[in-house]
Amino acid sequence: MAETKDAIDAATTNAEVAEASKAGASLIDALNPSADKKTAAKDAIDTAAKAKADAIDARTDLTQEEKDAAKARVSSRSRQG
Question: 39-52 pLDDT, tens per residue?
Answer without folding.
Answer: 999 999 999 999 99
